[in-house]
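Lecture notes, continued. The same structure-token format from the folding unit now serves as the input rather than the output. Read the line below as a description of shape only.
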């Protein structure tokens, strides 16, 4: 019985290897077809490229003047605004947004029973006043001209 199961495993393994090799060969065939089609497409483009450049050179200034016209810019800006409004939900069909939905569901799930054990005690915060001493010293150099911009050296000392 053990040899029969062992032979079945070998047969299944051989079938799996054949199936894997067949799929790999099909994938190689599709890659070859893809490569051939890309070569054909490149040769077709190279034959038609001068004509395309000539036509685009003719119509490019016309297209550029249309794109830079005030009417086109106006329409483009309005399209952007409409897209932003539609994306933000201004044109929604009356469904509540996420915040309103959260408020509705949170109001139904709130338990209003207050136990004295569940209320935390408030801590008292003690504030300490700090003393600040300011001193003013004149600079050692004597200014030649006394103006309103004369700089004074100031020292600030903080004690806690």
């Amino acid at each position: 019985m053990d040899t029969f199961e062992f032979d079945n495993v070998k047969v299944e393994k051989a079938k799996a290897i054949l199936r894997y090799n067949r799929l790999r060969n099909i994938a190689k065939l599709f890659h070859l077809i893809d490569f051939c089609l890309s070569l054909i497409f490149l040769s077709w483009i190279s034959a038609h490229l001068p004509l395309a450049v000539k036509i685009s050179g003719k119509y490019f200034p016309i297209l550029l003047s249309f794109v830079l016209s005030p009417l086109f810019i106006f329409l483009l800006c309005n399209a952007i605004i409409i897209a932003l409004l539609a994306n933000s939900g201004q044109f929604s069909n009356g469904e509540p947004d996420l915040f309103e939905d959260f408020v509705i569901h949170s109001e139904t799930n709130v338990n209003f029973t207050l136990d004295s054990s569940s209320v935390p005690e408030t801590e008292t915060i003690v504030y300490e006043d700090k003393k600040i001493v300011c001193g003013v010293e004149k600079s050692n150099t004597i200014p030649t001209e006394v103006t309103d911009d004369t700089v004074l050296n100031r020292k600030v000392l903080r004690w806690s």
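Point for the exam: Residues 86 and 92 are 8 Å apart (CA to CA).
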